[in-house]
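Final report, closing paragraph on structural work. Over the funding period we assembled a curated collection of sequence-structure pairs, and we close with a single example.
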Amino acid sequence: MKIIEYKSKTVAIIHKQEKWKEGLDFITPNETFIQAGTWFYNEGKSLRSHRHKLYERKVLQTQEVVVVMEGSMRINFYDDANDIFQKEIVSKGDFCVILDVGHGYEILSENTKIIEVKNGPFLSVELDKELI
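Its predicted structure, as stored:
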């Protein structure tokens, strides 16, 4: 796991394919608006069936997870002046949790496939994004 920090604050977390821990491993802190973790179990493991209760939460910001299924991409992280302060490459099996930082993506391989997950509800591009 690689922690991306800006002004002493965790702004993104990258999980690399080769760094899995056995069992359930949440990599995000409990207080983030989106939660991300990994499962690593052997055949025969059963997880208890459940459903999630309705519970009102206050969400102030969109956070996202990008999972590289095939190929690779570069993630550019931007500071408050909209300058790139860090670049990271993620490849097949890696994922990145974007918590609170400007970001952009550059696809590096042909036929790159990415899954993107965000917390909702979606309101509009105008309300959600500040373009850099």
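Residues 125-128 form the longest helix (4 residues). The mean pLDDT is 96. We thank the funder for supporting this effort.
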